[in-house]
Design brief:
TATA-Binding Protein, 6 helices, 37% helix, 2 domains, elongated, alpha+beta, four-stranded antiparallel β-sheet, five-stranded antiparallel β-sheet
Length: 211
């Protein structure tokens, strides 16, 4: 598990990377609104993550909640939002999907992905997948086509995540496949894909209520 010092180092590196970029251009590549600097104040981008809007001030890289200035985002939140903003290269969404195993460097993080994203979602919704529909709407999601029940939720503006459930029967246990647009690596590295999906799982389970 990363330590506090690990997070602080990662945040410092993310801010350094951001300071070297054209923030207005980067906002366009990330698909988020940009407000230019004015009156001596920094310009800022508004980046939504799982339905919560964050503000990134540039070039400092300070990250805050848009709607709750008195509350400080966790270090991992700041890092994740900065990584999305700085990694985005504007590649249009593709017409097909990939599993996490097909993501570059995924095998390093596959056990964590299965334990912290797949297993909790399957444990909570596998018996009755339709229960995920209402909480997914609250995260900006929509019902999709594959499987017995599926939803697509925008983790970030250009990082949709699709959860596909198959109900169990006498022969097979319930299953869950998590799919990403093929362009996901243009917006997040593998480690951040795991974290984004994990946080989506926790929020969906929290909204639906644990069983």
């Amino acid at each position: 598990m990363p330590t506090q010092e690990d997070f602080e180092i990662a945040l410092a590196l993310a801010r350094k990377d951001l300071a070297q970029r054209d923030a207005a251009r980067q906002a366009g590549l990330a698909g988020v609104p940009w407000t230019p600097a004015t009156g001596g104040a920094e310009g800022y981008a508004e980046v939504p993550f799982l339905g919560t809007p964050y503000l990134i001030r540039c070039p400092s890289g300070d990250v805050s909640y848009k709607d709750d200035r008195d509350k400080e985002p966790a270090l991992w939140e700041k890092i994740l939002v900065l990584h999305y903003f700085s990694t985005s290269d504007g590649t249009p969404l593709a017409g097909d999907h990939i599993s996490f195993k097909e993501v570059r460097d995924a095998m390093l993080y596959l056990p964590t992905f299965e334990k912290r994203a797949v297993a909790p979602l399957l444990g909570r919704f596998g018996g009755n997948p339709e229960e995920i529909l209402e909480p997914s709407k609250r995260l900006g999601g929509r019902r999709d086509e594959p499987g017995d029940c599926s939803v697509t939720i925008p983790a970030f503006p250009r990082v949709p995540i699709t959860l596909v459930f198959w109900k169990g029967d006498e022969e097979f246990e319930a299953r869950l496949t998590i799919l990403f647009n093929r362009t996901v690596v243009r917006y997040l590295p593998a480690e951040d894909i795991v974290l984004s999906t994990q946080m989506m799982a926790y929020r969906l389970i929290g909204m639906a209520g644990r069983k």
